[in-house]
Design a protein that fits this description.
The chain is mainly alpha-helical. The chain has helices at residues 5-11, 38-46, 56-66, 74-93, 111-115, 119-131, and strands spanning 16-19, 32-35, 71-72. It has one domain (5-131). The N and C termini lie far apart (42 Å).
Length: 132
């Protein structure tokens, strides 16, 4: 049976910093790479300002700096952002009040928005709602 988004969210509770052994994503061997956790990404989103548009590249830079790393892995960041989004959509479905504003970091025209169970229209409406 497939894991729920809640289980996926909880499955990697802590970020890790690893020294890469070979060049990777434009980084050099020996650089310190942050592998974030869904919780770390959710905390970053929760610290954002209402109506903000979060740039993923800037988020990755900020997370790396905060964890004393040279860069944040772009692949795991994308995977964990999706987990955070779907996990919070589950919370919305349960009428929970503490929702991380994942829509601030997702472009409605992106492939990620199209993959989400809510779809791009939800992302667009949440962004518009925050601007009004």
């Amino acid at each position: 049976m497939a894991k729920s988004w809640s289980e996926k969210f909880e499955s990697k509770p802590h970020p890790e910093v690893k020294i890469i052994e070979k060049d990777f994503w434009g980084q050099k061997a020996g650089d310190r790479m942050l592998i974030p956790s869904p919780k770390l990404i959710e905390e970053y989103l929760n610290d954002s300002v209402r109506g903000a548009q979060i740039d993923i590249l800037q988020m990755r830079r900020d997370l790396a700096a905060a964890q004393d790393a040279d860069f944040t892995c772009p692949m795991t960041t994308s995977i964990f952002l999706r987990i955070v989004a779907e996990y919070n959509l589950e919370k919305i479905a349960r009428n929970e009040s503490e929702i991380a504003p994942f829509w601030r970091a997702i472009d409605p025209k992106s492939d990620l928005a199209k993959k989400l169970s809510c779809g791009p229209a939800f992302i667009s409406s949440k962004k518009e709602e925050e601007l009004n």
